[in-house]
Amino acid sequence: MKNLITALFFLMSVSLFAQTEGFIQTAYNAIKTKDYDKALTYYNKAIDKADNYAPTFYGRGLAYFYKKDFSNAIKDFNKAISLDPNYFEAYYGRGLSEVEEGNLQSAIQSFTKTLSISNEYPEAYYARGNSYYFLESWDKALMDYNRAIELQPGYAMPFYARGAVHKLNKRNDAALKDFEKFLEINGNKGPLAAEVNRLIEEIQHPVEE
Question: 76-110: string of b/e by CB count within 10 Å (b at 16+)?
Answer without folding.
Answer: bbebbbebbeebbbbbbbbbbbbbeeebbebbbbb
